[in-house]
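STRUCTURE:
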């Protein structure tokens, strides 16, 4: 959640993820952690403030972040995800939460993941989804369709993330999509979300200003108490 982020972006990412919910009352962080609950040591790559640590058994979380600006949870190693200070086969699980589309060296990343993840270990990747499916998404499609068209370093790491994992020699066990939603009670909330979602990794970090302004204005017109903004996410579970 931190690659290319500015000061305070880690806090924004956690705040956005904690505010998002689904119909069953689950949130993105707990949803991401679920396949890793029975793993031993879990490596959280580009962990930011480390919200995933709160959902895992005590002593089984290790964060890695290139900047380690806000290590609210510990232990956190300061390292690039393609150059990890860990021995081969050191961890039982790895999580990549909303960072894959923005990382520059995917070949190096997957090579390092294969090295440090023990044979049979679990890899969980959570990415935004650009495909429109739910009724709420369809209603907003004319306004939101330009959001994911540009601004991603690797747009293929959204709804084609399964192909990337398979090409990197991982067996994809599941690929689930959940339309999480964020409250949209008033115009101020609409403008705040348009500012925060790119910084949280849910929308492209380099979203053009013209698109931001148009989307903010459109959401502000629709904002009302009880209304929500869909943020569909995909969770892929793979095995080494």
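SEQUENCE:
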């Amino acid at each position: 959640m931190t690659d290319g982020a500015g000061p305070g972006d880690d806090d924004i990412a956690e705040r956005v993820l904690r505010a998002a919910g689904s119909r069953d009352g689950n949130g993105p962080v707990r949803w991401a952690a679920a396949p890793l609950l029975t793993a031993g040591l879990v490596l959280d790559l580009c962990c930011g403030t480390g919200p995933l640590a709160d959902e895992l058994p005590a002593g089984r979380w290790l964060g890695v972040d290139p900047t380690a600006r806000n290590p609210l949870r510990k232990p956190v190693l300061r390292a690039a995800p393609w150059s990890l200070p860990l021995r081969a086969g050191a961890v039982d699980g790895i999580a990549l939460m909303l960072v894959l589309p923005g990382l520059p060296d995917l070949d190096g990343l997957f090579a390092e993941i294969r090295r440090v993840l023990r044979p049979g270990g679990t890899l969980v990747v959570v990415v935004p989804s650009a495909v429109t499916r739910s009724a709420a998404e369809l209603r907003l499609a004319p306004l939101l369709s330009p959001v994911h068209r540009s601004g991603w370093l690797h747009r293929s790491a959204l709804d084609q993330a399964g192909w990337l994992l398979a090409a990197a020699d991982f067996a994809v066990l599941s690929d689930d999509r959940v339309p999480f939603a964020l409250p949209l009670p008033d115009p101020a909330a609409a403008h705040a979300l348009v500012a925060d979602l790119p910084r949280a990794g849910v929308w492209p970090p380099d979203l053009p200003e013209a698109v931001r302004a148009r989307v903010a204005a459109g959401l502000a017109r629709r904002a009302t108490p009880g209304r929500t903004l869909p943020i569909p996410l995909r969770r892929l579970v793979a095995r080494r």
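REMARK: The chain has a mean pLDDT of 92.
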